[in-house]
Every structure is written in structure tokens, then in C-alpha cells.
Amino acid sequence: MTQFPLRARRIVVTGGAQGIGYEIALAAVRNGADVAILDLGEDRTRAAAEALGGEAADPVGYAVCDVSDHAQVVAARDRLASSWGEPDGLVNNAGIVQNVPAIDVLPADWRAVMDVNLSGVFYCSQVFGASMLAARRGSIVNIASMSGLIVNRPQPQTSYNVSKAGVIMLTKCLAAEWAPEGVRVNAVAPGYVRTAMTAARLEGEDARHHWIGATPLGRPGEPAEIADAVLFLLGDTASFITGSTLVIDGGYTIW
User: Fold this and answer.
1) What's this model's pTM, rounded to 2 decimal places?
2) Closest Cα to residue 167, out of 191, 185, 180?
3) Any idea where the domains of the chain sit in the sequence?
């Protein structure tokens, strides 16, 4: 028996070759889903798919894709449709961050964050959601952030925060439009999570004071804890939930 049964579900995970995205893909595989991942870099994405395939009953699909490029998203959808199938689940996980004071943010850097974190979520939802709307069933989970609800400290990251606030509103908009068509759209908003990219910074004094010190549970989250929440929202156990953002932050935003 699996914790969140997803047998016979086909789920696409963007940014699935590393970090939280890989953990989500792994959890989905272990709970019976057929999974395909999108990420940057042929070698890295193929290697991640092969590693995930070692845990799966069926081969894990993959496509190299920059989610900020609509044409690449369409091409990835077409590649997967011919080699893997049409999804009935999507996790929009791909994202980037820039810690730059607002006064110093360059226009190109602002656009890059918005293009990946917000436009990419819309493009993938639109392109991969089309088959779900046609089938009148499906579930989309967007990875937002508690940064879409609060202003982080001490690091400046205006573009990231604004992009994640946009993801929360996009989640509500798509949920409202697509509920009559049988497609649910939700989001999770993680707090500080220990990944390969954050592990070193979590050991710093600023992190101990502002990040962990301000988290009521007194520790960072683990990728598997985010993955469990995503799987819950993807599956039938959340069949009456749409348009919601589940905050998973150890209590950070309750202060």
C-alpha cells in the first residue's frame, strides 16, 4: 500500500532533474505513477530519468526544455506525447532566484525571473493542461513559495517574491476557469527547505538567526516533506480541493 496512491496516473514534473523537483518525481514513482521530467541539459535530465527509472515499473520519460520558452514547452509536450503519453497530472516546479537589491536589478534579470517562475508556470499549464481539459480530468500543482506571501529577510529578492505571488494568483485563476472542466489547480508554498543549493547557506549566521531562528519548528524543511504535500494534492484524496495554496513553512509565516 502506498501513502498517496497514484497508480495509472501520468505526471509531468518540471525542474525534475534535481532538488525538490527530483524528490517529487521520486515520490510519485514510488507511489505508482508514470512520470516524465522536464529540465535543462540533455545529460543531466537523461541521467535523472534513468535514475528514477530504477525505482519505476515503467521507463521514466524526459524532455529537455526551458519552460520560459513557449515553443520549447510545445516541443516537449509533442515529444512526450509520442514516446511516453499524455499527462493527467502536472507539477510546475522549475524556478530560479536572484538575491539582488531592487535598485540594482537589471531589466534582463527581472525578465529572466518572471519568465521562468511565472510565465513558465502558465505556459506549461496551458500546453500540458490542454489534454486534461479534453479528458475532463487532471490535477496541476504549482510550486509557489512562502515568499509570495511575505518579504524574506535578510536577503533582497524582490523579483522572486513578486513572481511567486503571481504563481499564487495564477493558481486561483486557472482553478476557477478549469474547475467546470474537471481539472483541479492548487499550489504549495514551501518555506526554507534543505537542498543541495541551500545546505551551505543554512549553516551561516544569517540563516540561523533569520531563517531557522524565525521558524517556530526550529528547523528547515526536507524535500520529502514538500513532495508528500504535492502528491496529496495530485491525488484523489484531495478531490474537493482546488484554488488552494498549502503553506509548508514550519510556521514561519504565522508571526
Assistant:
1) 0.96
2) 185
3) 10-249
Phi/psi at 241 (5° precision): -115, 120
pLDDT tens per residue across span 158-187: 999 999 999 999 999 999 999 999 999 999
The whole-angstrom distance between residue 232's C-alpha and the CA centroid of its chain comes to: 14
Position 117, amino acid = N
Distance (Å, rounded) from C-alpha 77 to C-alpha 72? 9
- All three cell numbers of 173: 485563476
Catalytic positions are 160
Length of the chain: 255
**β-pair partners for 62:** 37
How far is 50 from 200, CA to CA, in rounded Å?
Answer: 28
- For residue 203, how many C-alpha atoms fall within 13 Å in the half-sphere facing its CB? 5
Identity of residue 232: F
- Of the candidates 91, 68, 112, 117, the residue with the CA atom closest to the CA atom of residue 223: 91
CATH number listed for the domain at residues 10-249: 3.40.50.720
140: cell is: 496541476
